[in-house]
Design brief:
about 220 residues; Arc Repressor Mutant, subunit A; 11 helices; Four Helix Bundle (Hemerythrin (Met), subunit A); mainly alpha; two-stranded antiparallel ribbon; 2 domains
């Protein structure tokens, strides 16, 4: 577990235990850094991550507060998922299969022309960067556009969490499977989405993620 995760877990426990309630101002970066013996940069990174998830919010003067979210069991379960051990890749891939396949129908229903155009642009970037490390950045962007195109903010945030955890493992998986085969899968998925063919797009998404899961299980 890296230092940013240590800070994240520390804040999570303060919220889950009820010590810091919705609307409460949390300790300053300096106080948290001193308590955990980490740098303020590390504390800020963890806080920014929690702000992105709407767990924390910043107000005037840069002060940080606990967001007004439901603090019951469901919220605690979400926090536990967010801090899932990064080594548990198989579990995350299985969850990704459920989330991304389900997202297809919502994307086709709610996407607009700009979403499709952006997918086409990112696909071209994937083609142009197939032989360098930027390929992985564009792969993320391709899937993120699908999540964003669902117009479901919770799904988009969960997707970002998943890819944060996968970022350290994706390169190894893609190199093992071969980038060219992954590019072809993106092409087929893109065409199905452009044609609003939900059934076919779901098949391609299952195949896309399923190959990674199979490789990890070997």
């Amino acid at each position: 577990m890296n230092k940013s995760d240590v800070v994240f877990n520390y804040i999570q426990k303060k919220i889950s235990s009820g010590e810091w309630k919705a609307g409460d101002r949390i300790d300053s970066e300096v106080v948290i850094a001193n308590n955990l013996k980490v740098s303020r940069v590390t504390v800020r990174a963890a806080i920014d991550r929690m702000i992105g998830l709407d767990i924390l919010t910043k107000k005037n003067g840069g002060r940080t507060y606990v967001s007004f979210l439901e603090m019951g069991g469901n919220f605690n379960s979400l926090l536990n998922f967010i801090t899932l051990d990064k080594t548990n890749l198989e579990t995350i891939l299985e969850f990704r299969m459920i989330i991304e396949v389900s997202a297809i129908k919502l994307f086709v229903k709610n996407c607009d022309e700009d979403d499709i155009i952006r997918l086409e642009e990112i696909y071209q970037e994937i083609l142009e960067n197939i032989d360098n490390k930027r390929y992985f950045d564009y792969d993320y962007k391709f899937h993120h556009i699908i999540a964003r195109g669902t117009k479901n903010s919770i799904l988009e945030k969960i997707y970002k969490i998943i890819f944060d955890y996968l970022s350290n493992s994706s390169e190894h998986i893609y190199e093992t499977l071969g980038r060219k085969s992954r590019v072809e899968e993106h092409k087929l998925l893109l065409e199905a989405l452009k044609n609003k063919d939900v059934e076919l797009a779901e098949i391609y998404m299952k195949r896309h993620i399923g190959k990674m899961l199979e490789e990890w299980e070997k």
